[in-house]
């Protein structure tokens, strides 16, 4: 379940797993409340689209203001569906990373998605956070485990002190793939159709499992109940909209 919040027409969701931490900002945008025209209507927060950059800048301003992060600096990366992780204490637009971690107060980190899985992690003891972009390649490449391991090395992160959110993405009844992709997933994360030779992949479950394997208690892991495909009126879906669509942001940061 999620807390739904609207401010100046900007619609976003705060994961319930994070709502008891007043020093934390964590949110996931929807597609509502921006200025972008179709096919990016309306709260397109993705830089790497053909939407006018003026629109994206205004949309981001509105979103950051609505979630209470107007004074925060922001760090993100051009994502490449890999497993490289960036530790940063500075804002900026980096390149080649699909996860960011920080323990710098006042610095918001985030990932853009439009079917892939956003994962947000909060280490309460060490006041550190992570934002992860996991497509199917990042998922099978172990980006969640690699991020947690890096947090452990950098901050001393322990599982019992972590709270995590597996965000809105393509659902397990919509992500149909061929055997070249399906064979890289374990049987518990795929349903095979022998007649078509296709399989359906559960990306949420596949990214929850490494959180559990690291030792994070199940009660400290939230899972989005929404789907970019089934709830396409509220979320952008690259697959449904055949690439001509906007992007959501999933962000997290420690307050000053």
General description of the model:
It is a single chain. With 256 residues, this protein is an alpha+beta fold. It has a single domain (2-172, 215-254), classed as CNF1/YfiH-like putative cysteine hydrolases, CATH 3.60.140.10. Helix content is 19%, strand content 32%. It contains five helices and 16 strands. Strands 1-2-3-16-8-4-6 form a seven-stranded mixed beta sheet. Strand 2 and strand 3 (24-29) form a beta hairpin. The longest helix is centred in the N-terminal third of the chain and has 14 residues, at 53-66. The model has no long low-confidence stretch (mean pLDDT 96). Belongs to the purine nucleoside phosphorylase YfiH/LACC1 family. InterPro entries: Cu_polyphenol_OxRdtase (IPR003730), Cu_polyphenol_OxRdtase_sf (IPR038371), Cytotoxic_necrot_fac-like_cat (IPR011324). This is Purine nucleoside phosphorylase. Keywords: Hydrolase, Metal-binding, Transferase, Zinc. It comes from Spirosoma validum.
What is the fold's blueprint, element by element?
Elements: E1 2-7, E2 10-15, E3 24-29, H1 53-66, E4 73-78, E5 85-87, E6 92-95, E7 99-102, E8 107-113, E9 117-123, E10 128-134, H2 136-140, H3 143-155, E11 162-166, E12 176-177, H4 179-182, E13 190-193, E14 198-201, H5 203-214, E15 221-223, E16 248-254
Parallel strand pairs: 4-6, 4-8, 5-7, 11-15
Antiparallel strand pairs: 1-2, 2-3, 3-16, 7-10, 8-16, 9-10, 9-11, 12-14, 13-14
InterPro entries: Cu_polyphenol_OxRdtase, Cu_polyphenol_OxRdtase_sf, Cytotoxic_necrot_fac-like_cat
Protein name: Purine nucleoside phosphorylase
Pfam family, one: Cu-oxidase_4
């Amino acid at each position: 379940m999620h807390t739904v919040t609207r401010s100046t027409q900007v619609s976003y969701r705060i994961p319930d797993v994070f709502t008891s931490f007043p020093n934390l900002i964590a949110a996931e945008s929807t597609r509502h409340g921006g200025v972008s025209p179709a096919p990016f209507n309306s709260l397109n927060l993705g830089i790497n689209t053909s939407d006018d950059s003026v629109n994206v800048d205004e949309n981001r301003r509105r979103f950051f203001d609505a979630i209470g992060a107007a004074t925060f600096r922001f760090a993100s990366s051009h994502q490449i569906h890999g497993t490289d992780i960036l530790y940063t204490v500075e804002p900026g637009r980096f390149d080649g990373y699909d996860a960011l971690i920080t323990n710098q107060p006042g610095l918001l980190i985030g990932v853009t998605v439009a079917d892939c899985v956003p994962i947000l992690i909060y280490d309460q003891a060490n006041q550190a956070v992570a934002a992860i972009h996991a497509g199917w390649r990042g998922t099978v490449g172990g980006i969640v485990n690699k991020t947690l391991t890096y947090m452990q090395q950098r901050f001393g992160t322990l599982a019992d002190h972590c709270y995590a959110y597996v965000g809105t993405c393509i659902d397990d009844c919509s992500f149909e793939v061929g055997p070249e992709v399906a064979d890289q997933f374990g049987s518990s994360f795929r349903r095979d159709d022998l007649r078509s030779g296709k399989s359906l992949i559960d990306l949420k479950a596949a990214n929850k499992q490494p959180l559990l394997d690291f030792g994070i208690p199940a009660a400290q892991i939230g899972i989005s109940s929404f789907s970019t495909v089934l709830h396409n009126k509220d979320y952008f879906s690259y697959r449904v909209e055949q690439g001509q669509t906007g992007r959501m942001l999933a962000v997290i940061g420690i307050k000053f």
